[in-house]
Specification:
By secondary structure, this protein is an alpha/beta fold. It has 15 helices and 15 strands. The protein is 38% helix and 14% strand. The chain binds pyridoxal-5'-phosphate. One of its GO terms (biological process) is L-tryptophan catabolic process to kynurenine.
Length: 401
């Protein structure tokens, strides 16, 4: 049994805060604090450049990748870390296009995808020329998969609504049509059980600062199915994806497997923090995590709707009501979403807002209790009931929402 009281003790959680934004930036794992001090002093400080060998810095991107692999249903040596998610989207999409039948012109995505994924696809397709990004509504994706599609580029869990795609079914459908799949796991990794290998996914990418608690800007990850790893084109052919970086050859030869998806010098301090953050997952059963997450999201919806019926409060559930059709977040629409969230944050309940009108709350069993969820519903109902959000100090929009 996963001991969620024990995992909670692994995090620094500020007094007086109920944190419902671990889907955007996970809290600080205490082990990360210890590790970073050690890496700075003992490795960088004392070993200096010898640390690349003596502390095995060079293997860190793949070692951390292996720890993430377990959480997303991928076999060892199929995941590597580095760069940002936007860059990994570029790499995965470029490699997928190179593997797709050459006469296919369409990259298929949906309007619930995160803008950066769509912007990156726009940029790549502009550079390549002759291809088109087709964006349909999330519920129309399955029907839009046909023989014109080269690559499906989908984010499994919608960042606004939490709606969950059926990865196995859509992957099977894409394969039946001869297309290659790219899955973005930004809101899946550490949030729900993911079975990349079982679903037969081709490429997957994700970030580590959300549910994996790797810290602001922590390195992203990329998965390449073992059947493609030896043939996939890295496209961003940097020296650390070379088969022998320290041969300093003129010609690029990709590393034999997943390491070809590395680009440049790995961010060792950030990777070390991420490595320490992943300790929190060691005893966690993803099935039990999912059950606990569903309990928390169901409690939140029930408690909010009980205290604050839609007609009275103007709150409308924006997430699927079926817990199996959503990830680990719950979103409500409200006409005054932004000031409502500012008033909530002032009362210690931290969530966030996604334009134009979404109040977004993330649920993370590793460090969040049922009692806190009930309390946050009470505070939300009170903010709306008393119109506390109308106070002038909550009207000013900050740069980051
Ligand atoms: C959070 C998120 C990103 C962010 O990309 P970065 O390069 O890490 O800033 C991209 N795509 C999706 C689907 C996300 O949820």
């Amino acid at each position: 049994m996963t001991d969620f009281a024990a995992t909670r003790a692994l995090f620094h959680l500020p007094e007086g805060v109920i944190y419902l934004d671990g889907n955007s930036l996970g809290p600080l794992p205490l082990a990360a604090q210890t590790r970073v001090g050690q890496v700075l002093r003992e490795q960088w400080g004392d070993q200096l450049i010898r640390a690349w060998n003596d502390s095995d810095w060079m293997a860190l991107p793949a070692r951390v990748g292996d720890r993430i692999a377990r959480l997303v249903g991928a076999p060892p040596a199929s995941v590597v870390t580095g760069d940002t998610l936007s860059i990994k989207v570029f790499q995965a999409l470029a490699a997928a296009l190179a593997l797709a039948p050459p006469d296919r012109r369409v990259v298929l995505s949906d309007s619930g995808n995160f803008p950066s994924d769509l912007y990156i696809a726009d940029g790549l397709l502009t550079a390549l020329g002759g291809r088109e990004l087709k964006v349909v509504a999330p519920e129309e994706v399955a029907d839009a998969i046909n023989e014109s599609v080269a690559v499906t580029m989908l984010t499994e869990v919608d960042y606004r609504t939490g709606r969950l795609h059926d990865m196995a079914a859509l992957t099977a459908r894409a394969h039946a049509a001869g297309a290659i799949t790219v899955w973005d796991l930004a809101h899946s990794a550490g949030a729900i059980p993911v079975h990349l290998e079982q679903a037969d996914a081709d490429f997957a990418v994700g970030c580590t600062y959300k549910y994996l608690n790797g810290g602001p800007g922590s390195p992203a990850f990329i998965y390449v199915a073992p059947r493609h790893a030896g043939v996939a084109q890295p496209i961003l052919s940097g020296w650390l994806g070379h088969a022998e970086p320290f041969a300093f050859e003129r010609g690029y030869r990709p590393a034999p497997g997943i390491e070809r998806m590395r680009v440049g010098t790995p961010p060792i301090v950030a990777l070390s923090i991420l490595d320490a953050a992943l300790d929190a997952w060691d005893g966690v059963d993803m099935g039990e995590l999912r059950a606990a997450s569903i309990r928390l999201t169901e409690t939140f919806i029930r408690e909010v709707e009980r205290r604050c019926p839609t007609d009275d409060c103007g709150l409308a559930l924006a997430s699927p009501r079926d817990p199996h059709a959503r990830g680990s977040q719950v979103s409500f629409r409200h006409d005054h979403a932004y000031p409502v969230m500012q008033a909530l944050i002032a009362r210690g309940v931290i969530g966030d807002v996604r334009a134009p009108d979404i109040l977004r709350f993330g649920f993370t069993p590793l460090y969040l209790s049922e009692a806190e969820v009930v309390q946050s519903a009470t505070i939300l109902a009170d903010v709306i009931d008393t119109r506390a959000y109308e106070a002038p100090e909550y009207q000013h929009r900050a740069a980051v929402t």
